[in-house]
Amino acid sequence: MAGGMQVELNHRLVALIDTQADAAVDGLRHPIDYQSLTKSFPSSFHLLYIESSREERWARLASHRRYQTVEAFERADSHPVEQQIESLRAKADLVLTNDRSLREFYVAIDTTIRKFKEEGHR
Known about the structure:
By secondary structure, this protein is mainly alpha-helical. The chain has one domain (about 25-120). It has helices at about 5-15, 30-40, 55-65, 70-75, 100-120, and strands at about 50, 95. α1 packs parallel to α2 (about 30-40). It is globular and about 45 Å long.
């Protein structure tokens, strides 16, 4: 992002997506990412904004030993690349709160995708 190559990275990502299949893109962090996907897939792109409390995210990442200390987690969480995520919330087709078991969360995502398909969206 800092090097100004995010648009190019997004073009490369879009080129890899099979337009005949469903696809999920994880980790959108900036409006540029959203713009690239809505421009490339205007009628079939849906943004699911997934939120989770800072405490819940720390607990999950610590259990996977991603960060050794809460301070290291907080440094990563406050990194400049993370600062635009909240701006995507208003653009989301649906906001899901990830405060349940992984199994329950996957069911919620699957239900949402089925709903989009039933409404005629791809």
